[in-house]
User: Fold this.
Amino acid sequence: METNSTSEGIEQSFHATQCPDLEEISKRSLFFVASLVLLSGVNGVLLFVAVLGNAVILWVLRGVSSIHPPSRTLLYSLATSDICVGFIVQPFNLIYMISTAKGQAALCSSALPYWDVIGFAMSGISLLTTSEISVDRLLALRLKLRYREVVSLGRTRLVVLMTWLVSFAAGSASLWNRETFTILQIIGVFLSIAVSSFSYTTIHILLHQREKRRQERQIAWDQPSQSVNEASTSAFSTRRYKSTVSTALWVYCVLLMCSLPYMIVAALWAVYGSSEAILIAHAYAITLLYFNSVLNPILYCWKIRQVRQAVREVFSWVCCQ
Assistant:
């Protein structure tokens, strides 16, 4: 009973800090209110662009034959989570920012639990999916011909389903225990970073070793013409593989850059409490985190040639209508 009372007290204090009433908001600086108003406008624009951009990506991914179906499923999951950020999470964020700026504590408090759960779930899905993409690229390199047998479409769909369920379950922890929620955030972030870093480091080492062996064979140069053709085919496959790894690495790095400020602010909040400066930094960091959902479609168009061509065709068709 005492533990439950303590948790409820922490939760009420947390909501009171994040959702000030008119009396409390009158004590805040003009910069605090102006920042919320400015970021509300920015998030409104990002909301529209994230939904439109990722909807186009989901549409064109169906026709991209160069991407292995399990890998395409992971990209589907990532794009879907980005759409949910624009379509569901950011509207709650807008309600929070506008109601906070106006001192409407009741409206803010009613939106905050949904924002916590869905926002954390979508961020968790993005982090876990980028880690799964890195593992997928590592398996493609290590398993070689066995890759398509081991990494099947059915298994990948099961992994995606579990990712969504686990992320929503972890996000729901914010409704009953704030401390558990914070711990789950920290564990999830560090596990995702560790897995992705290990995968890309291993890929770099293996590719370097493969390139070294290829150069040694070229120096020997006692292969028959058929072997030379096989070597050319192998070099082409390596270039194609490096392209897919480059795309995945860019997605991971951009997500990390957009997430890192929020992680730092969350850590400062946990240590020093929610001062006005930290609340302002939190609002800007959240906006940067959601900006990642706008950047991902741009990365797909830049790094995947077939996606870029398909997007051009879609916009050409729309402009001609």
Residues 5-14, 228-233 have pLDDT under 50 and may be disordered.
